[in-house]
Amino acid sequence: MTPLYNHDQLSSFTPAYDRRFAKQLHDNVHGNIYLDPLFMKFIDAEEFQRLRDLKHPWMILLLQTSRSEATCSVAHLVYPGAVHSRFEHSLGVYWLAGKAVHKLRAYQGLELGIDPFDIQTVKLAGLLHDVGHGPFSHTFERAFLPRVLNGAKWSHEEMSLKMIDHIVDEHNIEIDSDILKKAKEMVVADSEYASSKSTKEKHFLYDIVANGRNGTDVDKFDYIVRDSRACGLGCNFEFQRLLETMRVIDDEICYRAKELKAIEFMVIDALLKANDHLKISSFIDQPAEYWKLDDSILKTIETSHGQELKESRDLILRIRRRDLYQFCNEFSVPKDRLEHFKDITPQDIICSQSISNQKNSSITLKEDDIAVSNVKINLARGTNNPLKSINFFQDFESVGKFPISDDRISHLLPACYEDRIVRVYSKKPELVEAVSEAFENFQLKTYGMKTQVHATPDKKKCRRR
What we know:
This protein is mainly α. It has 21 helices and seven strands.
């Protein structure tokens, strides 16, 4: 059989869709989706059309109700609006898989060697990743079949591989054998049928559809948004931002850690420096004056001409020009230290500046050189489990209430209900290296180890104003 596309032909393709041959359809999650002729051959097969009659299990309900995944496979029988099929989900994953690999190619294509062969393979894996599922999804696989197969093993992942081969053979689809082989490997990359990492080239491509490393993949991106939309729950998950900022490092897809706190510190410092002159804090006890106080206070400072507000003006100008306080690093307080944790101060960091560093450098840090953010994240009850404060009732004829203990709810509940994160910023770009080293010394002195996740990037340490 002569393949419709071979590797040499694919290398001449451009990322753009040729509208003369692509089919357009409108998806209620992703908008317009374009399907190339190769993929239409699979979609127009009755084996793929079967997915229209397979409900997708409602993972959103699984998260909301702590019910089993098997129960969520028949969620539409309880929640009338909880309906969408594996057909539109598969089209959505196909589209997102294409988006993801195109983004990586646009930003790192030469470095990673992504070619049109890879693009077609990833998109095909996204399209066909669910063809092996049975009726009622995991209910069929995990609750029904084990009771009738007498111990024989069966999995939808293995069935997916068989179904893909069956579709190709039954419909005489001409396709490069390497594309088909690798697409099948990608479909089962997060299962026991995955091939070993050592046998894979461009291992990062296998993380796009079914990520066996950490579970972050476009399959989940699609169903989180699709489930939420159909259930009317609303969804603020913007996978587009993840696709836009991801990059491959050491053959693995990584995501950017964003820094948000620096501007808040700069605004605080601007207000503190302006307070003596503008008497901002004097307004808080006088309603007749307090109502006049709003965010325009920054514009008042920024447009002033007096020397008294120069330091505040300079800080606001730095914000406008994005000459921000520089994030140095962060660490999560070890679990066994949470109970007696006290907020970290700039003075704590300064006291950790080693004597040897001071001798080898003309820099001596001052408190005003550093900003420290002590972040507390919990479930609104501090270190306590909020469920312990909630009572439940059986039904509307009940008059009694009762609590539910942790072990009766789920073994997936967290063992810890509060997190403390310490983030440190340098107010001057040229001090990033000194502040970072002092912060590392503080961790070593306090906890006996560096608890930060990664070192401060060298490019930040080398920055000068």
